[in-house]
Amino acid sequence: MTSKPRSLLDHRLIIVTGKGGVGKTTVACLLAEAARRAGQRVLLAETAPIEAAAARFERDPAPLGYEGRELRTGLHAIRIDPHEALAHYVRLQTGLGLVTDRILASETFQQLLEAAPGWRELILLGKLWHAEQSLYAARPVYDLIVVDAPATGHGLTFLDVPRVAQQAVRAGPLARHAGWVEELVHDRERTLLLPVTLPEELPARETIELVTRAREDLGIGVDRIVVNRCPPRPDAALSRVLAESKPAYEAWPPGTSLVPLVEHAAARAALAARERARVSDRCALPVVDLPILPGGAEGGSDWRAAADGVLADPSWPDREQTGASAA
Asked: Number of H helices and number of E strands within the chain?
């Protein structure tokens, strides 16, 4: 076991990723909200084609778009569209506005883009680098940038694009800028990869593969795993009383006994605890548990409590209680 990880709020860029369906976007929003409530100026960046973050904060939200907008005081959210980010980059480099737009909109240029692998990922990361570097009155515009990154697999591929670009283009502005982006991605003082998983076999297995690749192949910092939707364990005293009274309950009409419900909840919680311990053991990382939100992922006291929970100190599972093995 390693020393206690730093607070998430001590980083500049946190890249939230995980298997599709594990609640990656929700965790990114919870982290952004928690940082905002802690007094930080936060940028929440979406990368998916369809926006989802604003709906965690608002009912019937207006689109964020490339420029984004403020969702809460101190919390600005954007959706990074690769084509708009490319146009922005070219304008910054050339100083040409209308001409740039015409060139980028041409059919010939669009065909060239489709044939160029990795440009979307590189320009997306370049936008994040630009946001991290942005200053106002001699201080960073954003204290923390939270990225709702692509799902596991593609999420790591897009982080490796700057290195690949430098190997392909060894001189000029593109190589120089790719180098700056790669430096940010691999700077463990500034950047952290935050994997999100569920206490279930398949998501846990994919998270183990994700962490292994992030460390061994990419050298990206990761110091904890968020385990989302952890089921509550039934009260031990209640479980014991119901178990002792089971013979009497078996004589009740079907569907009226609480025993099967409690047994099911206990079995589910035990399975979740084993998977939580397995992913922690195999990755040699502590975990942060987030509960199932009864009211869903939007608003309310459960939402605020879960936001605080994201910042909780990660812990190591109790192996005696879970009976988990590292296999």
From this structure: 13, 10
Chain centre distance of CA 144: 14
pLDDT-derived band at 198 (thresholds 50, 70, 90) equals: very high
* Rg, Å, the chain Cα set: 23
* Angle value at C-alpha 85, between 82 and 86, nearest 5 degrees: 85
Beta strands in 117-272 (DSSP E): 135-136, 139-140, 144-148, 191-197, 225-230
Sheet holding 191-197, edge to edge: 69-72, 75-79, 42-46, 144-148, 13-18, 191-197, 225-230, 287-291
Q: What is the bridge-based pairing of β-strands 139-140 and 135-136? A: antiparallel
Residue 105's identity, in one-letter code, is: A
Which residues are within 8 A (CB) of 135 and not within 5 positions of it... i.e. 6 or more apart? 141
pLDDT of 318 above 50: yes
Q: Mean pLDDT score of the chain, rounded to an integer? A: 84
Tokens 């190997």 label which residue?
167
Range from 10-24, 138-152, 169-183 carrying the lowest mean pLDDT? 169-183
State the pLDDT confidence band at 242, using cuts at 50, 70 and 90: low
The torsion angles phi and psi of 50, rounded to 5 degrees, stand at: -105, 125
Residue type (1 letter), 242: L
Residue-by-residue DSSP string for 143-170? SEEEEEPPPTTHHHHHHHHHHHHHHH--
- Yes or no: domain 8-230+284-312 corresponds to CATH 3.40.30.10: no
